[in-house]
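Provenance and format

Records in this collection were gathered into a single text stream. Each protein contributes a sequence line and a token line. The two records reproduced below are adjacent in the stream.
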Amino acid sequence: YLEEDDIPADALSSLTKIAGIVEATMDGTSGALYAIFLNTLAANVRKQDSANMTNLTPSMWAQALGESLKALGVYTPAQPGDRTLMDALVPFVETLKSTGNTKQAAEAAKRGAESTKGMKPSLGRSVYVGGKGHNEVPDPGAFGLSQFLTGLAEAL
């Protein structure tokens, strides 16, 4: 994992490092989706017209995130309302695109994750695990991603 003194100074290096950690440590479909998304995000950040990767604007992030979300759609049919990580990701991207405000985008992701409490799962592990736990807790993928996106928003 990342040690505090091992965190790169620029966004692209940080994303690349995080994507590698996700690939090496996260199992299951969520791990694969996180890895695809983060690697695609790193590639889309790399495409940005910025000589210095430490000066990416919220609109540049929104563009990169939007393209990454589109690319992720090739690998999963999940949409908001399916009780998946998309319940946090889509509101984050849409809010950042429409407002340019990272704090509002992080709040949208948090609300999206929280909205999965009580939601009947239609994709992912919750479908076949059974039980009623989904009534009391948010989807773990949506919750985890909302935490990551909150950290990203704070860094921007």
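Adjacent record:
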Amino acid sequence: MNWSSKVGEYPLGDPELHHVAGSIFAEECEPYDAERHLALGTKDSPEALAKCEYEWYTQDEPPTAALYAARAIFPYLLVGNLRSANKAHLIFTSRLSSAANKSLSVQEVSSKSSDMRVYPVLPLLNFLGLLLLAVQRGSSDLYKQLAKHYAPHVKEVGVWDDALAQIGEMYFGIRIPRQGNPLFDMMGSMMGFGGGSPKPKPKKADVPPPPAADLD
């Protein structure tokens, strides 16, 4: 990917190459590597990433759905790609609400401007859907209300704070203290810039979803 960023028109590498590489990692059940490529891929990448995260989720407990959905949503928001974030959310929740999950209570909420699935027993998944709606509307007031209402649930997760702080600043103008570049510090610490041994596949989604930017 590094050569394509130097000689091509895309500073972070060619989206088609990212999509191909990410899709291969997704098929091999390597979610970390799939994430860092598919977040910089094509319009088809959100589907591949959402399916990868959903398959990973099926190995975990049902209440953890939002942790895996976030890994397909946050990377796109953090690179400014709202359309792909919405697509990833739609595909993940559609799978979750499929015939194989009839035991999961789901409510369809519709308005003139949007439709949304509400999960009474999965508050963090509702938070993600409302977060996307707030970003789409550019409503800082709605975002602040969401952050306050869901704060206890987000605190329990314990790994979304950095990503949400970046989203708050990018889309709603809520400034965060600067010490160097927090976004790249976060990406570097989670993704291990500079190579090293590959990360083992985790049993659970217990780290924040990184925006993909490793170009090796």
